[in-house]
TrEMBL record:
Belongs to the FMN-dependent alpha-hydroxy acid dehydrogenase family. Gene3D superfamilies: Aldolase class I. Pfam families: FMN_dh. It comes from Cellulomonas wangsupingiae. InterPro entries: Aldolase_TIM, Alpha-hydoxy_acid_DH_FMN, FMN-dep_DH, FMN_HAD, FMN_hydac_DH_AS. Its cofactor is FMN. Keywords: Flavoprotein, FMN, Oxidoreductase. This is Alpha-hydroxy-acid oxidizing protein. The keyword Mitochondrion does not apply. Residues 1-343 form the FMN hydroxy acid dehydrogenase domain.
């Protein structure tokens, strides 16, 4: 049983092959990319029975957001490579699903224009060596109504995306730019991934904004502990969808130790390889408070724009509720690690 490759295959049929690979690909041998999905496939459920009446209630509280289901759209760059309407269509789909969209700093649409869709938003940030510019970007996100900053911490250098190297894909097509990289002067900045970044960047960010701050890209429990000690409001267990350190362990395999280290002090989210309601259930049972989904949303966007995004999110929430009912769980809190086994 492998996850359905159908949405990805259909997206491949409609997208320019170079752009498809820019979205689908991972770093190096792509063993971490595939490993994320494989980790879910290895798990089996041990459901409870005769747990009484009641349809599942999936409502979940996260920093700045009350959600009907514990599913968040992960920050992904370049939505206009997937669909001409780009992040505006994504926002419309997320709004229709009453979901939560994490806007990428490398979005091909300005955060202000995405906010117009009415979708609940978080904003993903790469702290730049130019701290004044970084503070301006954060202020823009805050003014646009974003409810939290998601600080990506797994990218001291860029991952080596082999498919992009093969295609010599280095620049966005003419007409597409990263609109959130404009400074006050209107000039576009190049992204700098900063190998000098340390935990003081979290303290700096907390001094710059009153918004909640989550760190995204934690795999080691010692880093999870440090994150909580530095006052973050949430931790996202992520290996960047296998696009940074090739060979990094699957996020699902990293999750339990991080959950132990955080010990309930802040919410823990997980992304990477979540493709079904059952996958979401497994992550919640192993201690995640919510999951993030990246590529499936891009495939929905590529195939049907806003309607496709809405369908991906609605189907995932419905499938999670259905799987919970079959497993004898009424609320996410009923999902405990004993429900999951590796046979
Ligand atoms: C095309 C693409 C672009 C991405 N861009 C970003 C980004 O700008 N910032 C970031 O923090 N993560 C980025 N990510 C990583 C995602 O946030 C997320 O960690 C990953 O996609 C989750 O795995 P999944 O695609 O298997 O669901 C990107 C991922 C993809 C596939
Ligand atoms: O491709 C990515 O995963 C990503 O995070 C990114 C980083 C810089 C520019 C574009 C995308």
């Amino acid at each position: 049983m492998t996850p359905s490759r159908e949405p990805e295959r259909r997206a491949r049929d409609v997208l320019d092959p170079v752009h498809f690979d820019a979205l689908a690909g991972g770093a190096g041998s792509e063993r971490t990319l595939t490993g994320n999905e494989d980790a879910f496939v290895r798990r089996r459920l041990r459901p409870r029975v005769l747990r009484g009446p009641g349809t599942p209630d999936l409502s979940t509280h996260l920093p700045g957001a009350r959600l009907a289901a514990p599913v968040v759209v992960a920050p992904t760059a370049f939505h206009r490579l997937a669909h001409r309407a780009g992040e505006v269509a994504t926002g419309e789909g997320v709004a229709a699903a009453h979901g939560l969209l994490t806007v990428s700093m490398m979005a091909t649409t300005a955060v202000e224009d995405i906010a117009e869709t009415g979708a609940a938003l978080w904003f993903q940030l790469y702290v730049q060596p130019d701290r004044a510019f970084t503070a301006d970007v954060v202020a823009r996100a805050e003014a646009a109504g974003c409810r939290a900053i998601v600080l990506t911490v797994d990218s001291p250098v860029r991952g080596r995306h082999v498919r992009d190297e093969r295609h010599r894909f280095t620049d966005l097509p003419a007409g597409l730019v990263c609109e959130n990289m404009r400074g006050r002067d209107g000039r576009l900045r190049d992204l700098v991934v900063d190998p000098d970044l340390g935990w003081d960047a979290v303290a700096w960010l907390r001094g710059t904004t009153s918004l909640p701050v989550l760190v995204k890209g934690v795999l080691h429990p010692a880093d999870a502990r440090l994150a909580v000690e530095h006052g973050v409001d949430g931790v996202v267990v992520s290996n960047h969808g296998g696009r940074q350190l090739d060979g990094a362990l699957a996020t699902l395999d990293a999750l339990p130790a991080v959950v132990d280290a955080v010990a309930g002090r802040v919410p823990v989210l997980l992304d990477g390889g979540v493709r079904s309601g059952v996958d979401a259930l497994v992550a919640l049972a192993l201690g995640a408070d919510a999951v993030m989904v990246g590529r499936p949303v891009l495939w929905g966007l590529a195939l049907s724009g806003a309607d496709g995004v809405r369908a991906v999110l609605d189907d995932l929430a419905d499938a999670l509720a259905h799987a919970m009912a079959l497993a004898g769980a009424h609320r996410p809190a009923d999902l405990t690690p004993d429900l999951v086994v590796v046979p």
